Amino acid sequence: MDNLMQIAMQNVNYGSIMPSLVLCIFGMALLLINVFLPRGKTTPASWIALIGLVVTAVFAARGWGDPQFGFAGHVALDKFASFSNIIFLFSAGLTILMSDEYLQREGYPIGEYYPLILFATAGAMWMASGTDMMTIFLGLEVLSISLYILAGMFRGQLRSNEAGLKYFLLGAFSTGFLVYGIALIYGVSGTTNVADIGMYLKSHPAMLGNPMTIAGMLLISVGFLFKIGAAPFHMWAPDVYQGAPTPITAFMSAGPKAAALVAFVRILILGLDGLQGDWTSLLWVLAVLTMTVGNIIAINQTNIKRMLAYSSISHAGYALVGLVAANQIGVSGILFYMLAYTFMNLGAFAVLVLAGKKGEENLTLEGFAGFGFKRPFLGVAMSIFLISLMGIPTTAGFAGKFYIFAGAIKAGYIWLAVLGVLNSAVSLYYYLRVMVYMYFKEPAEDYGWVTLHAGAVISIIISVVGVFYLGLIPGKVMEMARMALFF
Amino acid sequence: MAFPYLTLLIALPLIGTAFCLLFRRQPDECRWFALGSTLAVLVISCWMFSLDPDSNGWLLREDFPWIPSLGARFTLAMDGISLLMVALTGFLQVIAVAISWHQKKHPALFYALLLLLESGILGVFLVTDLLLFYLFWEMMLIPMLFLIGIWGHGERIYAAVKFFLFTLGGSLLMLLAIIGLYLLHGQQSGDYTFALDALRQTDCGAWEAWLYAGFMIGFLVKVPVVPLHTWLPDAHTVAPAAGSLDLAGLLLKTGVFGILRFAFPLFPATAAASLPLIAGLALVGLFWTAWCAYLQTDIKRLIAYSSVSHLGVVMLGLAANDEIALQGAILLMVCHGLTTGAMFAMVSMLRRRTGTRNLAELGGMWNEAPVFSCFFLFFAVASLGLPGLANFSGEILVFVGAFRTMPVFAALAVVGVVFAAAYILRLVQGVLWGERPPGRSWPDLTWREGITLGLLAIGTLWLGLYPAPFLEPLQQPVRLLLTATGGLP
């Protein structure tokens, strides 16, 4: 018994989970602190949550040295995980910055909001650093359950209820697929460790064609593609994105999506390497489908929040292009793109948070008529984010797309790149339309005074800086994304 | 290290942009910021005529690291061709600020965008790194979109969106070609770079035609060549005066310049094979748009079509693959910038006085506003190619050169000049002569307008009578270009 304890302890290595550990401690402390805060006062909680993120960022940055392994090979804090952690921390931080005033305005100053975001982020971190199917699954569940609650947080709003319930039911279903897939792969290889699965399949090539392996791969893919919001598993996304509180929508479109992507990358490239032919052809089709479906439906939207939700589907499609390429440029492109997307999308959502009135009925195209001249700062910021989402040079969106499409072309998927670029061209139309309304249309009504809340303004400024930094001098971050690769 | 003059050229308008946005509540100051930075660009570019080229034709070169992990560098270089284009940009932007001096609607933003546009255009004329080129190429789009969309008249939203989608759609194909070329070169040499000189060594094999097509579509939309030209008349019809001036005077030239600087040198063999096709498109465009111009009743639309028609002659000069024709084509771009720019400026002056651009509602200007009418007649005949004025010297060189290599095309193109005469005379007749519509009094030019047009007129005369100083810097770069594409015997 003593012996066993010793072996177990040797393998633990808390250093490997330090960032998420710190985050969880802050989250739990915050839950306690909330009890003592006066009702309806959430501002101190948001500050503590931010401090928690900053402290975590310090630990996450320290992961950029030698990789730390722990828990008997279940967890690895390597550069890949660290880079992803930074993406999660940025998306959580920007979300929290824009949240406080929003919660007050909408009349739901709920203290549990911030700890839940911290827990979701911790879950995302486990997914990124999970080297065992079970760790990844655990992370996914922690992330998802936090998000189910957050999406349905506004109890009095029908849409929010709908979002929470829909997300929960469909999410639970998709997790079932994932677990089933993991079980099948376990049945084939006798292990849940991702690297071991890869080794096993390499040494037993006969098992590659086994229906159980293929079915396992497909089921795992379904589980992740659901979380990424890829077509045809995207049906939940628009309703959930529209119904959830706006900062949570912003958060969901960036952080958790990135988490699902990086975990998917690790499983596919490390574990199911042998099936690359199969999953690339599958993802090829789904990437094109995702980009196209997202873009084409986005064209029809008049609600800007919903439009961004659909466009976020198409952006998941661009990221999948990098996974199809499955080479150095493509996969580091995914990391870079998700960071870029975090800045541009959360920035756009922060503008929506400020522009919206209670209930957010005014976040329609008509409601934005003349917005650019009435609110110059927000107008310029929104234009910058939209231009970046279009993928026009000088912005992060261009650098990210360039990277991903270059990866696809290098891997020989010329047509995939062509279709991706054509899809970007389609997306121009609906992003441009928002700018057309903001600047070219006469204002339809007088806006109430928009108060520029410090938190949201700071998150907009951070996002603008991020968009231009990644767009104009992307070299350093690109280099880091390339170093982050584990293959 | 030498002083980075080229970077300074690109930065000056950007500084102006920043100042305009900072002082957006003081439109008077913004005006002077705009004028100051455009004048500074003009002065520096004029000084650059005194530089001597090195053996590769470069007057100035600057090179800084930019994105090391991709091998992209901040490389700027200026040869004689870009020198002329930069000088034209500097000159026309001063005029653009001058003709929109009394901009009432959001003046600060207007000047800021005008300067941002200038920065992008200068960037396009000066870069030799393909990724950086693409960056500047797209950077021109956004300000132009807003200039048309916010300050346009009539169907401005439709025109702005059409302009944006057409040009961006074309350049996305170019982006794919750039990426393809970059990767191809990287795989062959192991050196991943966007430098023009290095990429010229690439053996594209079977891909060459595709890559060339990608580049060309991006450029031809911008020129524009029929049938990709339909965005242009719409954009011109609604654009504000300064927007039209920049569009016709500068943006169209970036397309031609891109072909000369990138498409031809990168893929010389395919380019040489495609020349008859380009010449054919140029001819069709020349006649088709001349015919369209003749049918217009909106004088601004008429000039817009005539502009496409002139660009047809320029494209013919490119396609002729002949030293004289190519020099003529580049010179004609400068001439066309001045004359068409002047025409657009006058249309806006006319509109401000009469409230209309419809030929049927105009007439009798000659008696009402003699000074204006003199200028109008002067630039009109310059634009139809009257000897001694700007366009003639460019056109005659193109025709002389083209007769040497493709006589049939050249002979047909000369007939196009007759067409030009037809629509220009119709324009002059409709505006200057005839009966003045009753009930209005039209004042003559103000001194500010007079000086603006006077400057353009001096330029037009100079280019027409003594174009040698402008042709001289072209000789070496044109020779180098033709050596690459096999145009020299």
Structure, described:
The complex is a heterodimer of chains A (487) and B (489). Chain A has helices at residues 2-12, 18-36, 43-62, 79-106, 113-129, 133-151, 158-189, 194-203, 211-228, 236-243, 246-271, 276-299, 304-325, 328-355, 371-374, 376-390, 396-410, 414-440, 454-472, 475-483; strands spanning 68-70, 75-77. Chain A is an all-alpha fold and 487 residues long. Chain A has one domain (12-483). In chain A, helix 3 packs antiparallel against helix 4 (79-106), helix 6 runs antiparallel to helix 11 (246-271) and helix 14 packs across helix 20. The longest helix of chain A has 32 residues, at 158-189. Chain A is globular. Chain B has 489 residues and is mainly alpha-helical. Chain B has a domain at 277-489. Chain B has helices at 5-22, 27-47, 80-99, 107-126, 130-139, 141-151, 156-189, 196-199, 208-222, 231-238, 241-266, 268-295, 299-320, 323-354, 365-368, 370-384, 390-405, 407-432, 447-465, 468-485, and strands at 60-67, 72-78. A two-stranded antiparallel sheet of chain B has the order 1-2. In chain B, strand 1 and strand 2 form a beta hairpin. Chain B is globular and about 75 Å long. The two termini of chain B are 39 Å apart. The mean pLDDT of chain B is 88. The interface between A and B is medium-sized, with 33 and 35 residues.
